[in-house]
Design brief:
The structure is a single chain. By secondary structure, this protein is mainly beta. The chain has 2 domains: about 1-40; about 55-360, YVTN repeat-like/Quinoprotein amine dehydrogenase (Methylamine Dehydrogenase, Chain H), CATH 2.130.10. It is about 5% helix and about 50% strand. It is built from 1 helix and 28 strands. The chain has one helix spanning about 15-40, and strands spanning about 55-60, 70-75, 80-85, 90-95, 100, 110-115, 120-125, 135-140, 145-150, 155-160, 165-175, 175-185, 190-195, 200-205, 210-215, 220-225, 230-235, 240-245, 255-260, 265-270, 280-285, 290-300, 305-310, 315-320, 325-330, 335-340, 345-350, 355-360. The strands form 7 sheets. Strands 1-28-27-26 form a 4-stranded antiparallel sheet, with no helix packed on it. A 4-stranded antiparallel sheet has the order 2-3-4-5, with no helix packed on it. Strands 6-7-8-9 form a 4-stranded antiparallel sheet, with no helix packed on it. Strand 26 (about 335-340) and strand 27 (about 345-350) form a beta hairpin. It starts with 15 loop residues before the first helix and ends in a 16-residue tail after the last strand.
Length: about 375
């Protein structure tokens, strides 16, 4: 490297002291270069930075899609985004943009979709337009129906715990708000838990076996155990009209979008060293304008993606600090849902009325090249 000739020698170059000083300078410069290469890039919110951390690209859906997807989920193993689109499922290959439609004979409106990538199964919630809901398990290249599970009431949100292969569906029954737990291997309901009267979203902490249910009208989040007892461990007050929730599987923090409050609540759990129940609390509230709705977390990078319903951009939070790290502008407005492919570190975003999905990925230039002089780098 040319840098090896950049050491400044003030003594006789043949002396032992000079050689040591030269080696020290070279070692310091080399360490500084490595540190500069490995250091995280500054957020694009920094006005001195010209290169964004993430870039957005649109994938236009083919003719025949409704253009108003109700829900979405991602399979990180196959890099496929599944959209609940009217009376069908649309599968989009993130790498090629090729979209394929499935399930035109599911028997109603496909409102929700969830994926268990380990079992290679897709689950959809179907409304027959008369208030009767069913959850269908789909599998195989053509996404054929392999099981149908009748639901006691409505289904407003659902997600998958891939460790226990449990599908968690939340909605309303005659007794009020309920979280229903379905054993995916048996395709049967194994129990339920009472939650708020109007549950709007659900996410799970796979490691700790916890489901977080956002209760829209009570402005709370129910913390429900995924164990056999399926008990409600805690109820946490958050902002007004919580609409979405996502969990960082490594930090075990939950991020809740408060639609009316224009904020995101960060919920953390503290383990009891004596083996008692963990304590849950809101440790930070972050302002996010535009009525935040959808939210997803990339646990490998600790980046939180927030989709404001009233905006044309996605707000990114640093999941470790909770601060806004970047704002990525989008062509579409009226944003709705976000889903994450952690193996590609890519977020997929849909708007309420837009025949496309937007993929947000890390930009190629994540950090500026180090600037070096004769004796130092920065």
């Amino acid at each position: 490297m040319n840098l090896l000739r950049h050491g400044v020698v003030t003594s006789n170059p043949g002396s032992t002291g000079a050689r040591r000083r030269t080696a020290a300078i070279l070692t310091s410069a080399a360490v500084t270069i490595v540190a500069a290469m490995l250091a995280p890039a500054a957020a694009s919110a920094d006005p001195s930075r010209d290169v964004p951390l993430h870039s957005a690209s649109r994938v236009t859906l083919p003719a025949g899609t409704a253009g108003q997807a109700h829900d979405m989920a991602t399979d990180s193993r196959t890099h496929t985004v599944y959209l609940a689109d009217g009376n069908q499922i649309v599968a989009v290959d993130e790498r090629t943009g090729v979209a394929t439609s499935f399930g035109a004979t599911l028997g109603g409106t496909v409102d929700l979709v969830a994926v268990d990538s380990v079992l290679a199964e897709v689950f959809v919630a179907v409304d027959d337009a008369h208030g009767t809901y069913q959850i269908k398990a789909l599998a195989g290249p053509s996404l054929s129906t392999i099981a149908t599970i009748p639901m006691a009431g409505s289904v407003r949100a659902m997600t998958v715990d891939e460790r226990s292969h449990t599908l968690v569906a939340v909605g309303n029954a005659d007794t009020g708000g309920v979280a229903t737990f379905i054993d995916e291997r048996l395709n049967a309901v194994r129990g339920s838990a009472a939650v708020g009267t109007s549950p709007a979203a659900v996410a799970v902490d796979d490691v700790r076996g916890i489901a977080y249910v956002a209760n829209e009208t009570e402005n709370t989040v129910s913390v429900v155990s995924l164990d056999d007892d399926m008990s409600v461990n805690d109820v946490i007050p958050v902002g007004e009209q919580p609409a979405g929730v996502a969990v960082d599987q490594l930090s075990h923090e939950a991020f809740v979008t408060n639609h009316t409050s224009n904020s995101v609540s960060v919920i953390a759990s503290t383990l009891d060293p004596t083996g008692g129940a963990p304590a849950y609390s809101v440790i930070k509230t972050v302002d996010v304008a535009g009525n935040p709705w959808g939210v997803a977390v990339d646990s490998t990078t600790h980046v939180v993606y927030v989709a404001p319903e009233g905006g044309h951009s996605v707000t990114l939070l640093d999941g470790l600090s909770g601060d806004v790290s970047e704002v990525v502008p989008l062509a579409a407005g009226n944003l709705f849902h976000v889903a994450i492919d952690e193996s590609l570190n890519t977020a997929s975003v849909i708007a309420r009325i837009d025949p496309a999905i937007t993929l947000i990925s890390p930009a190629l230039d994540l950090a500026p090249a180090p600037t070096c002089s004769l004796t130092w780098c920065r």
